[in-house]
From TrEMBL:
Cellular-component GO terms for this entry: plasma membrane
Entry annotated with the keyword NAD: yes
Protein name as catalogued: NAD(P) transhydrogenase subunit alpha part 1
Role of this protein: The transhydrogenation between NADH and NADP is coupled to respiration and ATP hydrolysis and functions as a proton pump across the membrane.
The EC number(s) this enzyme carries: 7.1.1.1
Residue ranges of domain Alanine dehydrogenase/pyridine nucleotide transhydrogenase N-terminal in the record: 4-142
Length: 380
């Protein structure tokens, strides 16, 4: 069976699904799997065709050959362009990220083409699946990079400096949403010398925030049942969000940097920073809104733009992992190899049937046999 590695076509995407070092893990005589790589697939991420070939992959003549000959296509983002899709027949399996809850129509379209799709965002957040969890890997990269962007745009410095020319106080960094990206942002900001604060609606987040040397921001606000299935936050009612915004405004006014990461899976991001809160910040402060792709946590965020409003810089990056493509690809690739190894052991990689009791395979299967199989995607 052939695994195909495609060059990503989405604008700005620099990652590659499989890195050369992991070719021998994906393909070896024991698994009977071979790897076929589109020429130049890894170039933006820093991996040459020669490195893939050295690790045992075959470099195809062109993209068309990969699309025609590979049984399983490994992607970062599933292809959406018609040129690629028309070249895929219904016997193919696609594995990659597809934003299945944000863009269920793509899954319906791929189902209509008879393709089998495993959408990696659907991997359950359970201990057994941790080494396949691409959302966590990519959120780690985003949290780290968000802090570097903030430091770069801030008109002040992060660390406290005591010099002969006077003392500079440390920057105050507030992280809203202490999930995977938020915790990484707190850790990174502290390493740069900032005083850090974290806030989340989930009660469990307090201990994690404090374990990183940050202060947990306590609001006079009750959300006893803010945590839903899988450890994610739940959608809360509008009056909660209104009060939350109002209370957060006072905390935000004290901060030099706000990194916002608050998300509720499958829903629009909660609005945590209104225009008044932006106006209340000191001139030269920075907001990095990692929720930009889902509408943003800040009312003024524009996805993929850096804007100035009320002398505050607001960034809305939607794909920070692509700005660190070598390591982001390395982490993604390892998650992907763990996932295909898991499917292969279950006999589900490219086989005729996807019938299984295995929770990981079952929940990650977005579509098969012409139908959307994922229950949350079907209900979108
Ligand atoms: P996410 O990206 O869905 O959300 C980011 C954060 O925003 C979450 O912590 C969420 O609670 C928070 N949030 C939502 N609404 C908010 C609001 N109104 N105000 C403030 N914060 C708000 O989450 P994630 O980073 O993907 O992870 C969510 C949880 O899952 C975390 O507890 C994480 O530790 C857990 N997790 C478990 C596993 C595992 O066991 N395998 C793997 C990864 C993550």
């Amino acid at each position: 069976m052939k695994l195909g590695v495609l060059q990503e076509r989405r604008p700005g995407e620099t990652r590659v699904a499989l890195v050369p070092a992991q070719v021998p893990l994906a393909a070896n005589p024991k698994t009977g799997l071979e790897v076929l790589v589109e020429p130049g697939a890894g170039l933006h991420a820093g991996f040459s065709d020669a490195e893939y070939a050295e690790k045992g992959a075959t470099i195809a003549a062109d993209r068309a050959q990969v699309l025609a000959q590979a049984d399983v296509l490994l992607c970062v983002r599933l292809p959406e362009d018609s040129e690629t899709l028309v070249a895929l027949n219904g016997s193919k399996t696609l594995i990659g990220m597809a934003d299945p809850l944000g863009n269920p129509q793509l899954i319906a379209d791929l189902a209509g083409r008879g393709l089998r799709v495993f959408a990696l965002e659907l991997i359950p957040r359970i201990t057994r699946a941790q080494n396949m969890d691409v959302l966590s890997s990519m959120a780690t990269v985003s949290g780290y990079k968000a802090v570097l962007l903030a430091a770069n745009h801030l008109t002040r410095m992060f660390p406290m400096l005591m010099t002969a020319a006077g003392t500079i106080p440390p920057a105050k960094v507030l992280v809203l949403g202490a999930g995977v990206a938020g915790l990484q942002a707190l850790a990174t900001a502290r390493r740069l010398g900032a005083v850090t604060m974290g806030y989340d609606v989930r009660i469990a987040a307090r201990e994690q925030v404090e374990s990183l040397g940050a202060k947990f921001v306590e609001l006079d606000l009750k959300a006893d049942d803010a945590e839903g299935a899988g450890g994610y936050a739940k959608q809360l009612d509008q009056s909660f969000y209104d009060r939350q915004r109002q209370l957060l405004g006072r905390v935000i006014a004290e901060c030099d940097v706000v990194i916002s990461t608050a998300a509720v899976p499958g829903s629009k991001s909660p609005l945590l920073i209104d225009e008044a809160a932006v106006q209340g910040m000191k001139s030269g402060s920075v907001i990095v809104d990692l929720a930009a792709e889902r509408g943003g946590n800040c009312a003024l965020t524009i996805p993929d733009r850096t804007i100035q409003a009320h002398s505050i810089t607001i960034l809305g990056p939607t794909n920070l992992p692509a700005s660190v493509p070598t390591h982001a690809s390395q982490l993604y690739s390892r998650n992907l190899v763990n996932f295909i190894t898991h499917l292969s052991k279950l006999g589900l990689l490219g086989g005729n049937s996807t019938e299984t009791d295995d929770q990981i395979a079952r929940e990650t299967l977005a579509c098969d046999r012409g139908e959307v199989q994922s229950v949350p995607v079907r209900h979108k």
